[in-house]
Amino acid sequence: MTLTPVELHRYLTALVEQALPLSTMIWGPPGVGKSSIVAQIARANNLEFVDVRLSQLAPTDLRGLPVADSDGHGGGVSKWYPPEFLPTGGRGILFLDEVNMAPPTMQGMAQQLILDRKVGSYDLPPHWFVWAAGNRKEDRASVFDMPAPLANRFLHLTVRSDFDSWRSYALGRGLHEQILAFLTFRPELLHRLDSTQPAWPSPRAWEMASTLHRAGLDIAPAIGEAAGAEFMAFVRLYEQLPDLGEVLSGGGLGLRLPPEPSVRYAVVVGLAARAANAAEGYAAFRWLANGAGPEWLQLYVATLVSKFQALGHLADLVELMERDPELAGLVGSAAELANA
Description:
There is one protein chain. By secondary structure, this protein is of the alpha/beta class. The protein folds into two domains: 2-159, P-loop containing nucleotide triphosphate hydrolases (Rossmann fold, 3-Layer(aba) Sandwich); 163-339, no CATH class. It is 49% helix and 14% strand. It has helices at 5-17, 34-44, 59-63, 104-116, 148-151, 163-173, 177-185, 203-214, 220-223, 225-235, 244-248, 261-274, 278-289, 294-311, 314-323, 325-339; strands at 2-3, 24-27, 48-53, 65-70, 76-81, 92-97, 118-119, 122-123, 128-134, 155-159. It has a six-stranded parallel sheet. Helix 15 (314-323) runs antiparallel to helix 16 (325-339).
């Protein structure tokens, strides 16, 4: 079953809300956000989150160490002392990341934990979910084949990169507007695996790139030389932008939307990213409505809706819809698509 990050979030949330303790395996390319989605679900549902990287453990790290313990009759037995990172109570998600990068001996050890919810003398508390994640062979990752008995213990979900899902996440996280504008213009560069290079574009890499760009540093070390060169060429287009602050304040009557498509992407996404409230959002909409075609209005409203929803500013959406019937229709359509 292949899902976008938003769809994966909804599916896993449903497992939590319905209290379905089914072991679940999440497949997907590196950098697509598998681990961060699981961590978000744990935070949103007040669950503890234990992230175990099986590929970095030895069997005794998971099973524990044997310790001699007197039986009170002059003899002794060995007991297995479990590692401190395994939960002993409460509610949470035990996340076995990089599960298929672990050697077969570790996967076999994990199989007992997944199947029987125990390993050695350790028992997983009842209110814990066991979820795992891994890369696929086609992702050029150094993975081992997952044994059929282990694979058969899981639900299997595959996540793929999706620009609309990432845009909503990026707007909520406050990623740099020039990163957002560039990827709106070139969404195919959101995730482009290049096994010949150490750095290549992925959702995780673009988040790092946003941090670098905000600090005034070259972003090529995060996303690779080719994508970095394209991005810097796009950034130079910002010199051609009208004063976006003037537009947002309602004083953009004398400004015109540039004809160059790449510059238009920068203007439209920049306005949506900078709009701090309903008044600014509406001023930008009216300015665009006077000089842009319907496709640019739709892009602006879709980006604005994603931002307000990600930030929880639904009241701003309602206020926007009350101002203008044309805007109300576009906001309603964009909200339906975002929730589809």
